[in-house]
Amino acid sequence: MTEEAVSPSCSNALQLMTEEAVSPSCSNSLQLVTEETVSFSYSNALQLMTEEAVSPSCSNALQLMTEEAVSPSCSNALLLMTEGAISPSCSNALQLMIEEAVCPSCSNALQLMTEEAVSPSCSNALLLVTEEAVSPSSSNALQLVTEEVVSSLCSNALQLMTEEAISPLCSNALQLITEEAVSPLCSNALQLITEEAVSPSCSNALLLMTEEAVSPSCSNALQLMTEEAVSPSCSNSLQLMTEGSVSPSCSNSLQLMTEESVSPSCSYALLLMTEGAVSPSCSNALQLMTEEAVSLLSSNALQLMTEVISLPCALNDLQLMTEEAVSPSCN
C-alpha cells in the first residue's frame, strides 16, 4: 500500500492499489489499477489497461497494451505490443517486440532486450525489457515493465511496478526493488534489471550482467554481479554483491545487500527494502511497501530491517551485509 492507498485481498490473491486507484482481486488472480485505469481479471487471467488502450485476456493468458497498441492473447500465451509493433504469440510462448525489433522465443531460455536488441522466450522463461520495452510472461513466468508500462502476472507469477507502482509477489517468488530498477523472480529464479544491463539465463536459472561485469550461472542458480563485483553461486542459491560488498550464500537462500540495509530471510521467501522502506509478507506471499511503510511478517516470510541492523542467519535464511557491516554465514 502506498501513501493514500488501501488494498484488501482475497484468498491466495494479491490486491494492489495506487494513489487514486482501487483494485479488487479474486482467488488466484491479480488486479492492477493505475491512476486513471481500470483493470478487470478473470480466473487465472489478468487484464491490464493503460491510458488509451484496452486489452482483453483469456484464461491463463496475459494481455498488455501500451499507449496506442492493442494486443489480444490466446490461452497460455502472451501478446505484447509496443508503440508501432505487433507481436502475436502461441501457447506457452512469449513474443516481445520493441520499436523495430522482433523476437522469437526458445524453450527454457531467457532473453533480454535493450533499445535495439531482440529477445525471445518460451515457457518457463523470463523476458526482460528495459527503457521503452515491455516484458510479459506466461504462467510461472515474470513480467517486468519499466517507466510508463504496466506489469501484471498470472498465477504463481510476480508483478512489479516501479516509481508510482506497488509490487507484490506470490508463493516461492522474490521481488526486489531498487532505485530505478525492478527485479522479480519466479520459482527458483531471480531477475534483476539495472540501467544498461543485459541478462541471459539457462534452464531455471537467471544471469545478470551489469556494465563491465559478467556472470555465468548453473542450473537452478542465479548469479548477480554489479560494477566491479563478482558473485559465484551454488545450486538453488543466489548471491548478490554491491559496490564494495561481498555476500556469501547457502543452499536455497538468497543474499541481497544494499547500501545501509540488512535483510534476513525465511525459507523460499525474501523481502528487500530500499532506502527507508519496510516490506511485510504473509504466508507464502510477499508484499513490498515503499517510503514510510511498516512491515509485518508471518510464517515463511522475511522481515527486512534498514540501516545498520543485522540478524543472525539460520538454515534457509538470508543475511544482508552493508558497507561496514559483517554478516555471519549459515550452517
Structure summary:
Helices cover 0% and strands 17% of the residues. It has 331 residues and is an all-beta fold.
Structural commentary:
- The chain is mostly beta strands and 331 residues long.
- It has two domains: 1-155, no CATH class; 167-331, no CATH class.
- It has no helices and 20 strands.
- The strands form seven sheets. The chain has a five-stranded mixed β-sheet with strand order 3-4-5-6-8, with no helix packed on it. Strands 15-16-17-18 form a four-stranded parallel β-sheet, with no helix packed on it.
- A hairpin with a 4-residue loop joins β13 and β14 (182-185).
Report the count of strand segments: 20
Class computed from helices, strands and strand pairing: mainly beta
Low-confidence stretches: 1-331
The mean pLDDT is 27
Q: What is the molecular shape?
A: globular
Instruction: Measure the end-to-end span.
Output: 36 Å
- The main sheet orders its strands as 3-4-5-6-8
Number of domains: 2
Radius of gyration: 18 Å
Oligomer: single chain
Strand and helix order: EEEEEEEEEEEEEEEEEEEE
Largest sheet: 5 strands, mixed
Helix content: under 10%
The number of helical segments is 0
What is the beta-strand fraction? 15-25%
List the helices and strands and how they pair.
Layout: E1 14-15, E2 30-31, E3 46-47, E4 62-65, E5 77-81, E6 93-95, E7 111-113, E8 121-122, E9 127-129, E10 142-144, E11 158-160, E12 168-169, E13 174-177, E14 182-185, E15 206-207, E16 222-223, E17 238-239, E18 254-255, E19 281-282, E20 285-287
Parallel strand pairs: 1-2, 3-4, 4-5, 5-6, 7-9, 10-11, 15-16, 16-17, 17-18
Antiparallel strand pairs: 6-8, 12-20, 13-14, 19-20
